[in-house]
Amino acid sequence: MAHNIETRLEEAGITLPEAAAPAANYVSFVTFGSLLQTSGQLPLEGGKLPMLGKLGAQISLEDGQKAAKLCAINILAQAKSAVDGEWDRIGRLLKLTVFVASDPTFIEQHKVANGASDFMVQILGDIGRHSRSAVGVPALPMDAPVEIEALFELK
């Protein structure tokens, strides 16, 4: 499986960044028994947010999906760090929780979340199929449009 994930990342033109350090008093991930929980990941690219604002106001659905994909890339960077680069230790992605900074009239949070979900299945294959929540919120840290946390099963 490890080879498959690295191959799929390469085919998608994705180089995982270094796992981001926590921005406050928390850890980037926690393992407990056979579970790996990531902290919420923002759509950072090169250490910066490429877009700011709310879906339905400053951010389009398409850009929201791109932001969700960036969050997913950062989740995979955290997961890779958590398993010391040993992708074979990942049993399955169990759940994504997607927070979407939304204008009060925006009701397509689920479509924004597809940017992350589709990417996870593309890269992880069948073990990337997961349950999900997509929630609209009034604001996120640093005016990010999306934040996503993940729960994985470890082998």
Description:
By secondary structure, the chain is an alpha+beta fold. The chain has a single domain, classed as 60s Ribosomal Protein L30, Chain: A (2-Layer Sandwich). The chain has 3 helices and 5 strands. The chain has a 5-stranded mixed beta sheet, covered by helices on one side. Helix 2 crosses helix 3. The protein is globular, with a radius of gyration of 15 Å. The model has no long low-confidence stretch (mean pLDDT 96). InterPro entries: Endoribo_LPSP/chorism_mut-like (IPR013813), RutC-like_sf (IPR035959).
User: Which radius of gyration do the C-alpha atoms yield?
Assistant: 15 Å
Shape: globular
Strand content: 15-25%
Walk across the major sheet and give the strand order: 1-2-5-3-4
Overall mean confidence score, pLDDT: 96
Helical percentage: 25-40%
Number of strands: 5
* Tally of distinct domains: 1
What is the CATH H-level superfamily? RutC-like
Structural class: alpha+beta
CATH class: Alpha Beta
Instruction: Quote the CATH topology.
Output: 60s Ribosomal Protein L30, Chain: A
- The span between the termini is 12 Å
Number of helices: 3
The low-pLDDT segments are none
Order of helices and strands: HEEHEHEE
- Assigned CATH architecture: 2-Layer Sandwich
- Major sheet attributes: 5 strands, mixed
Q: What key phrases describe this protein's structure?
A:
5 strands, 23% strand, 155 residues, globular, 5-stranded mixed beta sheet
